[in-house]
Amino acid sequence: MNERKPKRSLLDRQGIQTLIASLLCIVLGLLVGFIALLIINPGGAVKGILAIVKNFFYLPNARMQMQYFGSTLVKTAPLIMCSLSVLFAYKVGLFNIGAAGQYVMGAGASLYCALALNMPWYVCLIAAILAGGILGGISGALKAYCNVNEVISCIMLNWISLYSVNTLLAGVKESTSPYTKAVDTSNPSAMLPTLGLNQVFGNKYVTLALPLVMVVAVVIFILLEKTKLGYELKATGANRAAAKYAGMRENRNLILTMVISGGLAAMGASLFYLTGIEQWSVTQSSVPGMGFNGIAAAFLGGLNPIGAIFSSYFIQHITDGGGYVDKSMYAAQISDLISSLIIYLCGFVLFFRTFMSDRIAKRMEMRRQAALAAEEGHGKGGVE
Predict the structure, then answer these.
(1) Which of 55, 61, 282, 305 could form a disulfide with 221 if both were Cys (CB 3.0 to 4.6 A apart)?
(2) Cβ neighbours of residue 338 closer than 8 Å, sequence gap 6 or more
(3) SS3 (DSSP) at 180
(4) Measured between alpha carbons, how far is 299 from 304 in angstroms, rounded to an integer?
(5) Which of 165, 191, 171, 172 is CA-nearest to residue 273?
(6) For residue range 34-63, what is the model confidence (pLDDT) as tens digits?
(7) Which residue from 81, 86, 305, 284 is spatially nearest to 179, judged by alpha carbons?
(8) 322: which DSSP letter?
(9) Residues sharing a CB contact under 8 Å with residue 41, sequence separation 6 or more, in sequence order
């Protein structure tokens, strides 16, 4: 007797589950943000939440909308790289909370090469990747050979990186401000090529960074899912002892994972600062939030490199949209509060997906048992 399998529903697909879980987290985040606005000032809550969601669409004409859309994309590029950094390490069983420090190292290396050494943009980009890779490799080596938890080593290296970069870039800062010199005036060769995208968006900061991060996301997807190296890296993360027994070089794989992860985050920083959109402040005492936001973007995207592109854009869209909230009704920090709530809830994507998957699996098993019982009853009826 052939056992008939119940049909798989659309909800049984992992990609659909991730999408639904991500949308659910987004809706919950916006709902909690709206409640916060209601508590602070009920009169402006509706307009406030709409301003956050609309972002640049809140502006009066298409030209300004396109220009500010370009600015949002410029800020999204490094966030995509940080999310790729986090998810790459997570796929191999490591939690790279050091993406923030690696991002800082990338900023420091690229800006120093640009402003102090007058290097062209591609040398600055390579220098940033190497600096972030070395920093990530230190955490990987400590994990591989000393069994030091990568979370602890990464957190400490975040602060070491910040103050080291502040000291390094103090030599290339403006004389009248705490900010580094402007790249576009000090060394135009260090500016990323625009490829004509600046004219499309009417925004001089839109550069090569946008298509480059898309290419990197695709490469990371292929590396993890379609190559032998990706399989070995994931196998090492799943069971280090089993990987060693199978002949894989587990220590090398751990270090290589953190090197690649660190290089990705640092590359994101160089793709941001070499556009000239922002200057580094050598007096800042907190690690930039881009690396930490990358954690939320990675999970909201379902730990998928392609999904990370869309989740990173959404987080940056909401973050920038907070700037359009009426400041006469709400404090300037309300935008940070709303975006923080949404980012916090993004961490529950995997929880919702697991919960959904378990419920669907139980339902499928009940259908299978019911189908078997019906067939057995039919068979007995035929014999009688």
Answers:
(1) 305
(2) 33, 36, 37, 49, 52, 318, 322, 325
(3) strand
(4) 8
(5) 191
(6) 888 888 888 888 888 888 888 777 777 888
(7) 284
(8) G
(9) 329, 330
CA 334/CA 30 separation, integer angstroms: 13
User: Do the Cβ atoms of 52 and 322 come closer than 8 Å?
Assistant: yes
- What does the alpha-carbon distance between residue 63 and residue 46 come to, in Å, rounded to a whole number? 26
Region of residue 119 (phi > 0: left; psi between -120 and 50: alpha; otherwise: beta): beta
Residue 360 belongs to what H/E stretch?
helix 349-383
CB-based contact 377:326 (threshold 8 Å): no
How much is the pLDDT for 258?
A: 96
Encode pLDDT of 246-266 as tens digits. Answer: 888 888 999 999 999 999 999
Burial (CB < 10 A; 0-12, 13-18, 19+), residue 133, is: buried
Place of tokens 């990186």: 161
Token pair of 48 as six digits: 């406030």
β-pair partners for 179: 281
* Token pair belonging to 219: 């490469």
Q: Which pair of structure tokens corresponds to residue 364? A: 């499928």
- In whole angstroms, give the CA distance from residue 301 to residue 310: 7
**Are the C-beta atoms of 181 and 280 separated by less than 8 Å?**
no
Q: Are 54 and 230 in contact (CB under 8 A)?
A: no
**Using an 8 Å Cβ cutoff, are 344 and 297 in contact?**
no
Q: Which two tokens stand for residue 27?
A: 């809706």
Residue 236 · residue 93 · CB < 8 Å: yes
- What span, in angstroms and rounded, lies between the C-alpha atoms of 107 and 84? 17
**In this predicted structure, what is the pLDDT of residue 14?**
66
Token digits for 68? Answer: 């500010």
pLDDT, greater one: 292 or 332: 292
Question: 349: which 2 tokens?
Answer: 């994507």
Percent of the chain at pLDDT exceeding 90: 51
Whether the predicted model's global pTM rises above the 0.85 cut: yes
φ, ψ of residue 38 in degrees (nearest 5) = -60, -40
The better pLDDT of the pair 86, 299 is held by: 86
